[in-house]
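Slide 14.
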Amino acid sequence: MPTYIYETVGEPNTQFEVRQSMKDEPLTRHPETGVPVRRVISGGYGILQKAGRPAAPSKPKGHGCCGGSCGCHH
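Slide 15: predicted structure.
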């Protein structure tokens, strides 16, 4: 079950974490205080790869300026 970060709306902004199912609706109020809240969108990992394989750095192909597809020839 994922953990989501929420923050209170207004001053002071405070953040807290809640474990929720992906199917659950986002909270609109703090579960203890009733203060309005919004879910914070975070970056995550950003890299998808096949299981068991390390992520390989991307390497330019061709002569290097744009992979050889720009039409320039060095």
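Speaker note: The chain has a mean pLDDT of 79.
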